[in-house]
Structure formats: C-alpha cells, structure tokens
Amino acid sequence: MVQMVRVNGRNRGDIRLYALSTCGWCAKTKELLNSLGVEYSYVFVDLLPKKELEDTLLEVEKFNPAGSFPTLVINGSRVIVGFRETEIREALR
Amino acid sequence: MSGDEIPRELIEEKVSALRKDAESGGYFLNPDAGFVWQLARGLCINEKRYGYPSCPCRLAVGRREEDRDIICPCDYRDPDLEEFGACYCALYVSPSVAQGKTAPLPVPERRPTRSERVSVATRAGRTIDVPLPVWRCRVCGYLCARETPPLVCPVCKASKDRFERFM
Ligand code: SF4
Predict the structure, then answer these.
(1) Ligand 1 pocket mutation, candidates B21, B30, B70, B72, criterion most atoms within 8 A of CB
(2) pLDDT the model gives residue B39
(3) Using one digit for the tens of pLDDT, what is the confidence trace for B119-162?
(4) In terms of domains, do B154 and B95 share one?
(5) Comparing C-alpha atoms, which of B81, B88, B133, B92 is closest to residue B109?
(6) SS3 A42
(7) In sequence order, what are the beta bridge partners of A43?
(8) Dihedral sign computed on CA atoms, order B116, B27, B73, B94
(9) Is the CB of B92 under 6 A from ligand 1?
(10) Do B56 and B14 belong together in one domain?
(11) Which residues of B touch A81 (CB under 8 A)?
(12) pLDDT band at B1 (very low <50, low <70, confident <90, very high)
C-alpha cells in the first residue's frame, strides 16, 4: 500500500484522502478535514512515481470506479467522491 | 514536490489569458478569484509537467493522445456547464453562477473510465459517403468539410488533434 502523509487530530476512524496536488476541490476537501480537526492520511497521486501511481490509481478505482479525485475513504467502506461538504461533515461528526 | 514551483508572474499571466479567452469566447470564469488562481497554477504545473495544460482536477497519464480529451478546455466543459452550471473543476461557470444568482452543482465525472476509454479508442469510426470528410471540433462543436482538420479551430482555437471525423 502506498505511503500516505498523516495529519494528526481527533480520531474518527481510518480516514484516507486520495487527492491531486493541482486540483481545487481536492484542496477544499483537505481544508475541510483540517478545519474539522480529524486525524487523516492523504496522498497526492499525481506526484507519485510511475509504479506507485499506477498501484494507487487501481486502489482508488476499487472504491470509486471513475478513478476521480478527491476520493475520501472512511474505514475502508464509506466512500465520498468529490467535495461534498455536507456529506463529509455528517460522516465525520 | 520540488520542481512544481511556478513563478507568480506566470500564474498571473495565465489568469489574464484565461480571462481574456473566456470573455472573447462568451464564457465566464468562477467569480472566486482565489479559486481561479489555484486552478491557473494547476494548469501551469501540468503544462510544465506534461507539455500541455491538462485538467488540474484529473489525473493525466502524460501521453498527449490519451490525455487529449482533458486538455483545458476539455471536451466535457460545455455539456457540464449546460447541465451543472460549472465545468468539472469549476474554472468555467454559467452566466448565472458568474453573477452569483445560483450556486454551481457538484459535477460528477463525465469522462469515461479508463477501461471505457480503451474500448472507445479502438471502435471504428462511422463514415458515410460524402465528397469530403467532415471534421468536428470536440471542444466547441465547429464542423468543417475538408481533407484534413484545420491547424487550429477558427472558433475556439483548439488544436488540430482535438478534431474528430464526424462524417
Ligand atoms: S474541467 Fe474545466 S478546468 Fe478542467 S479541463 Fe475542463 S474546462 Fe478546463
């Protein structure tokens, strides 16, 4: 599994954010997680070396067949695709 | 990542160019200037990284033939503006969103998935018997009948490789 960057905060389960470093909605999602103060891990997929990028994209596609970003995975089961603020807030309340 | 640092002036130039092109083409940029700045930065990074300004909110593979449909403005901008009031990245918005009358809706990914794209690429184009081939600009829909597509679209300035055989 790919190395993710951990951000410390309140433990609300295993929260993983797959993002792109260039994307506006990914940045907004990350800001939202920061402002909620939850603990999470993230990775900027576009910055990964080739092999890891491919593996990570396959991982994203398992949760979100469109392979789009941001993809937020909560406890390996709940998946929120895109910056859906209300949904994210509710899921992490 | 280092190497992705783009000088401020370059990003500002990009923002002005986007604004100018949008105005002359009858499009509108997101009223949130900070958000536009961030996307312009993303476009500059992608241009430097891949050699073309692919969509900041989509993962490019770095091969132009495979990323062609997501070179900004992408093939999906106009239908998304029509249906959701914004393009996928919300760089471009509808007039009513630009004026702050309505909020843009979240835009689901319209681009086919990786496996769908492979099958589309290998599907034979439909051609019928016409005196000249008809080419369609995938960005703006402009049609022309000539042996080869123009170097740039006379309407939206998309490059030759954004054209598809229409008839
Ligand atoms: S979604 Fe918007 S910003 Fe992204 S490539 Fe299409 S037009 Fe450009």
Answers:
(1) B72
(2) 97
(3) 665 655 566 788 999 999 999 999 999 999 999 999 999 999 99
(4) no
(5) B88
(6) strand
(7) A18
(8) negative
(9) yes
(10) yes
(11) 108
(12) very low
Instruction: Please give the average per-residue pLDDT across B10-32, as a whole number.
Output: 96
CA of B17 relative to ligand 1 center, distance in Å: 15
Q: Provide CATH code, domain A5-82.
A: 3.40.30.10
At which residue do the structure tokens 């891990």 appear? A41
Q: How far is CA A25 from the centre of its chain?
A: 11
The number of the ligand 1 atom at minimal distance from the alpha carbon of B76 is: 6
Dist. CA B88 → ligand 1 center (Å): 6
Contact at 8 Å (CB) between A17 and A44?
A: no
Contacts of A45 in chain B (CB under 8 A): 59
What ipTM describes this predicted complex? 0.94
Residues B98 and B152 in one domain: no
Report which secondary-structure segment, H or E, holds A15: strand A15-19
- Judge contact between A87 and A74, C-beta under 8 A: no
Q: Which helix (H) or strand (E) holds A36?
A: helix A24-36
Q: Which domain holds residue B95?
A: 8-105
Q: What share of chain A has pLDDT > 90, as a percent?
A: 96
Non-local CB neighbours of B89 within 8 Å, separated by 6+ positions: A23, A24, A25, B39, B55, B56, B57
Same domain membership, residue B139 and residue B97: no
By a Cβ cutoff of 8 Å, what residues of chain A touch chain B?
20-27, 44-47, 57, 61, 65-69, 81-84
Which residue matches tokens 């703006």? B140
- Ligand 1 near B135 CB (within 6 A): no
pLDDT in tens, A40-75: 999 999 999 999 999 999 999 999 999 999 999 999
